[in-house]
Amino acid sequence: MGCCLRRLQLLCTCVAFSLGASVGTWKGTIGNWSMFIWCFCFVVTLITLIVELCELEDHFPFSWDNFLITCNCYSALLCLSASIIYPTTYIQFLPDSRYRDRTITSTAFSCLAFVAYAMEVAWTRAQPNMITGYMATVPGLLKGLETIVACVIFVFIRNPYVYLHQPALVWCVAAYSICFLLSSVALLLNLGKCDNRLPVPFPIFQVVLTLLSVLLYATALVLWPLYQFNQKFGGQPQRSSDVSCSDRLTSLVCTWNQRLAVTSLTAINLLIYVTDPVFSVHLDFVSG
Asked: Which of 146, 139, 141, 132 has its CA nearest to residue 206?
């Protein structure tokens, strides 16, 4: 079952990447992100398949099963993000042509890749006596989702002119970066089995980091739209006032749309951060 799903993952990510490359998807920021996801997932899946076919799992200094389910969870979340962001910011601007058909097909294979990775995670968790890793738990998935949403935010704010003109917006970028680092630290400590070396219990440490991230994201959710869309603070309330939005370049997302996307992603990630401690407390303190 695992090998069949892995071959399906290889096929879907390879087709999605190839079709994206054939229409010049890499020319835009979102295209770059999607192409990176498909290429990354393909390479990681290929490596894991080769390792398992050569029976080299025991040669690694870490738990192969934990590593595998972590890769599958991240690959599923990454393909899901590409399947949502790619069509909403890229395909809709393409005229009816063979290029549009290819990008739609690429998105469809990206969705299939997500399903294949999700099925492998579910199949692994359903195995009897299988000790699943942290990423297979709800808090682990939420932590991974937090980092992925943050990465998408970084893609949209790649150009400094989006935020450098206002100190409040620079603070928002700092908040995104700090929260990304905090989530990454929590993930790495748990995946590296270093959580028992902390001076405080890891569940308490994790909840504290998450609550701090909630506060930071709450400030960003207030400041980012206020300084980007409120005219009193130098923002642009109307999309039509942005010159870059009038030139409908299919491979680029105009500045106003980038600002709106960051606002939406900030709200989404704040919701994920608020949900995170609820499941963490239930898993570690109630169920445990």
From this structure: 139
Q: How many CB atoms lie within 10 A of CB 218?
A: 15
Burial 30-66 (b: 16+ CB within 10 A, else e): bbebbbbbbbebbebbeebbebeeeeeeeeeeeeebb
How far CA 53 is from CA of 61, 119, 125, in Å, comes to 19, 20, 21
Q: Running DSSP on this structure, what letter comes out for residue 200? A: S
CA distances from 90 to 4, 33, 83, 114, 130 (A): 31, 12, 11, 19, 41
Distance of CA 208 to the CA centre of its chain: 22
On whether the pTM is more than 0.90, the answer is no
Q: What separation in angstroms does the CA of 33 have from each of 26, 162, 242?
A: 8, 18, 24
- pLDDT tens sequence across 45-85: 999 999 888 888 777 777 777 788 889 999 999 999 999 88
